[in-house]
Structures are given as C-alpha cells and as structure tokens.
Write a structure and sequence with these properties.
This protein is of the alpha+beta class and 129 residues long. The strands form two sheets. A four-stranded antiparallel sheet has the order 1-2-3-4, sandwiched between helices. The longest helix is centred in the first third of the chain and has 21 residues.
Amino acid sequence: MPLTILIPLVVLGIAGIAILLHLSGLTAPRRFDGVADANAAWLREFPEMPPIETHIDRDNRVAFVRTEQGDGLVWCMGADTVARPLADFDLMDIDGGLEVRFHDFSAPHAVLHLSDLDLPYWKHLLERS
C-alpha cells in the first residue's frame, strides 16, 4: 500500500479511537466511589497497615487515612491512585488547595485541589499528622 494512503489511514484510525474513548467517558479522571474504595486503594499499596479511619474530600479525589502505624494520604492521579504515609513531609498553601512535599525520592510532592470548604479541615488534618 502506498504511503500516501497508509499514513492518513493510520492517523485517522488512531484519532478515531481516541475520540471514541473520550466520548464513551473512559478518559475521565478517577474519583473515589466512597470510603471503601479509598481504603482499597490504600491497602493495595500498604496491606500491612489497615485503615482505622478515612476522610474523603468533597470532590472524591483525596483521602486521609489513619492507621495504627501512622497517618497516610491517598490521591487520584489520572486513572489510578497513589498512596503515601505521612511520615516526613512539608505542607504548603497554593492557589486552590495544598501541596504536600514528601521527603521521599519516589513521591516528591502531591498537589491537593480542595474546595474553600475543605481547605481548613484538610489543613488541620495534615498539620496534626
């Protein structure tokens, strides 16, 4: 097949697949379905630290997890979740939320987009960790 036909066919095919995925809702960012979903995301990464108490923000993208071994944070990043213990970190205010800077090379920081109602509560939760 000549390249003048093959290249547009490949480009249009890839673009068509991307459009179909977007229109079917499969490209939407992940959100927690509830406390059980946030706990499951935490347990996938830290099965030896079962949650005792879990708080989720109003947008269902961030969860604060309290365990017997210490506190932790679970947040949605794209279509997946990331979980980190809150052992050594710095908390900074940013426009529209908070930034958690971990002193860990594997997770340098997390940006938490929080509503004006959630911001003071989450700041209090994270500062007492």
